[in-house]
Amino acid sequence: MMNLCRNILASLAACFLCVAVQSKESADSSGTACVPVMTVEEDGLAFQNGEKVDFVMHYKWGFINSDVGHATVKLDTLTFNGHEAFRCSVYGRTTKFYDVFFKVREDFKSWFTRDGLRPLKFTRDTEEGGYRAHNTYLYQWDAAEPYISADVFTSSLGQKSMEIPLTPCTFDLPALFFYARNMDFDVITPGIRYPMTFVIDDEVYNVYFILYGRETIKVKDIGRVKTIRFAAKLLEGEVFKGEEDMTIWVTDDGNRIPIYFEAPLRVGKATGRVTGWTGLKYPFSSLVKE
Q: Is 30 exposed, middle or buried (0-12, 13-18, 19+ CB in 10 A)?
């Protein structure tokens, strides 16, 4: 049971962040545009300064059927090295009960420009049982060949400093989460696989997403919500089944909040759902009035 809990809870800590990973097409080295977005200019974005969204993680397998962790995503504004910037703060943790089995703490921060959503800096501070990871990325856009200056520590690999290749569509996870919310689903072809890229620790990952279309679903403690459903190919590893997809439902309104997701695990299934929000830019018009 202990090893099972280790794998499950470690994956759930990352599951929320995987929502961000499900939503963009990477550019190639020539600078090909990402998946179409409605806009990256601040006035037209799907979010604003002061937004806060809360999520809960749930795990089901056999007799186990309970919430095991939660996460909060907050957005504020500041000036970063002369740039008017957004700062996203993501904090996730297991519940007190599951801390006894396998304590998880995830603390991510990302700075990106308010116009253009170009990433500027990223930090990660992770504790998953006995595993530790610390990342600091600085995006060097002005270099002759842009790169990410990365200081990376993991308890399995130790400390290293490195340069990671940087293209116009390379993002850290929180920056990607917000970039993806501005995707123009109306010009993306349903059923087609769109590649995407993200960076975590010392590696660049390439996966893909598929748009399925609009669907109304029922979300616990919220009600029926009009959504846009799509799926993402997950990276195969110790926890996720590589041959299956994570499914994500985002609100079909101006906010584009990932309201619910399901992820197949090697043992059981993980889900996540929104439990609360404040500071949304647009009315939550996707909520169906009963």
A: exposed
